[in-house]
Amino acid sequence: MSKIILVLFVLFNVCACNQLVYVHEGSLGVDFHASPSDGNARFAVGYDRSTYLLVPKLENGTDAMSMGGFSRVHVEGIDNIQFAHAVATGSAAQQLAKRPEVIRGLVKKILVDGAEQNKAEPVKADPSKGVNQ
Amino acid sequence: MPTITLANIRRPPGIKPLSLLAMLASLSACVHGVLSIPPATFTYYENLLGTGRAISVVSNGLVIDTNADAGITLGHSQKTYFFEGQNSHRLSGDYFAPLLGKTSEKPSNEGNPYTLRAKTLPETEMEIKKPVAYSTASVGLIVNTNQHRLGLIVGANHYDRLFLPREFDGIVFIHLENHPAPQRIFSIEKEVTKCPK
Fold first, then answer.
1. Model ipTM?
2. pTM above threshold 0.90
């Protein structure tokens, strides 16, 4: 057990994140794992849920990329999970920062319009194409 | 009464190793880095604008996945990988004009153009290669062996991940729902003039 903890400690400290990462995860049961690319570890018994965002940084501590966006996670138990995320980087992020009306429009387009369409036109499963359609 | 010896235990009478392998091979399928017993169901999705694609893999049984969410699952597994579309590369300019152009209008008959819709595509033409995001839902025994997750889960697990390289310059949005019906909205557009470092 001590060797496992030592390995996780090393992974946690030596691994650096060089990507923009957004994660939402939830588990019911026993969850024991590490994330070498993100530099974190997790041990949960029972129900656990987490959401996190990682932004890469330069050696001097400043952000390595411009970014802007919004996210929404709606969870009802373990079965009904709605995950929504929008992120803009670089020149798109600079445009987003200068135009707050764009954020409102994106929220409506991605979250509201999408949800309304899903309720109005539920996707019907086609047995010939599997469960997902 | 036959004598029980070590040789008998290693090779039970009536079942030859080759026969057993042939039986397993007939029940399994290996497509695009996914070995599953019984065979998994692959479905291809694409949005109307061609700025986003997805491939879903649904399996019940034993699954060995060697893609971005590599690992072994014994139970039910449902994974969706999201990729760039053929129109995901664009020139710099106003990224948001196309997105906001129809905000004030009534939805068209085709609905949200960013919604991923299933399309018929031969499994041999599907490629699970360099996804931008993936969403997984699994129940059972899950052993993850990839750089994003390394460990063990016993029970039910839901995992959504969006990851972009540091040099990415563009916009990505994703919206996943499973109630009242499964729906996926996904799009990625990025600068075509900027070369990744």
1. 0.74
2. no
Disruptive mutation site among B82, B106, B171 for chain A (greatest number of A CBs within 10 Å): B171
Contact B118 A85 (CB under 8 A): no
Of B56, B115, B170, which has the smallest distance from its Cβ to A90's Cβ? B170
Q: Is B172 helix (H, G, I), strand (E, B) or coil?
A: strand
- Nearest Cα neighbor of A91 from B171, B173, B180, B36 is B171
CB burial string B55-82: b at 16+ within 10 A, e below:
bbbbbbbbbbbebbbbbbbebebbbbbb
Reading chain B (197 residues) residue by residue, the pLDDT tens digits are 556 555 555 555 555 666 655 555 555 555 678 888 898 899 999 998 889 999 999 999 999 998 888 999 999 999 999 999 988 887 556 667 666 654 444 444 567 788 899 988 887 777 777 899 999 999 999 999 988 889 999 999 999 999 888 888 888 989 888 766 778 889 998 876 544 44
Q: Which of B99, B111, B182 sits opposite A121 (nearest CB)?
A: B111
Nearest chain A residue (CA) to B177:
A82
Which positions in chain A touch B57 (Cβ < 8 Å)? none
d(CA B31, CA B116): 22
Please choose, from the candidates A7, A49, A98, A91, the residue with its C-alpha nearest in 3D space to the C-alpha of residue B93. A91
Residue to mutate among A50, A89, A99, A102, with most B CBs inside 10 A, is A89
User: Given an 8 Å threshold on Cβ–Cβ distance, is B164 in contact with A28?
Assistant: no
